[in-house]
Amino acid sequence: MAQPLVFSLVAGIFVGLSAGYVGSLMVLKKMALVGDALSHVALPGLALGILFNFNPFIGAFAFLFAASAITWYLERSTELSAEAIIGVLFVLALSIGILITPQPDLLEALFGDISNVSAYDALIAVIVSIVVLVLARWIYLKTVLSLISEELAKSSGINVSRFNFVYLFLVAMVVSIGIKLVGTLLVGALVIVPAAATKNVSKNLFSYSIASGIAGILSATSGILLAYYTGLPAGPLVVISGTLIFLVSLFWNRLVT
Questions:
Q1: Domain, as residue range, for 207
Q2: How many domains does the chain have?
Q3: pTM (2 decimals)?
Q4: How many angstroms separate the first and last alpha carbons of the chain?
């Protein structure tokens, strides 16, 4: 098995797991479209990395973190929703990113390229994914409590605003490490689709979060393998794999209910 494929699969396993796990929170918070829109904010940072020859992950994460911080601040200080704020940032960032990304690199930036995943990229994906999983586990139940009743969460000593910021930070981290595999245009789907699929068949919160991570792994790894053997871009194939899992979950849900 070629080394790039091995590195891509290692990265895919960890990115899929962390994306699915964080995505389960996103679906519970009814912010699925926010994750998709936020992913596009990374494109200008990715383009700057390409233009100035530094790790595109750094540029992508910097823009995603800035967008998360701006969204968190404006949501607190104005009456705008997170969806509206990220919607504005999304179209602005996508427009700038397309303008400044070198044409030969634009397709890879939008849809990913598993042939360019190195051992260093895989290592970064593993480390960041582990950090994301630990932090997500820490905020999970507290965030769910705030969704049930924000007043109850505050009376229990939970700083809801702080946990919302951590949540956006985790989404930014997951998206930034998934870009290499799936591309900026479709990485949001890696967060959303597995979690949407497993919500149909999960019986409780714990099984839902675990199943979302497993579905994320299956989506990422099957898409990567298909991309390797067909020569097609990985991003669309990962999304198609995740969508097939979603359809299977719908069919299964109808059978058992």
A1: 3-256
A2: 1
A3: 0.88
A4: 42
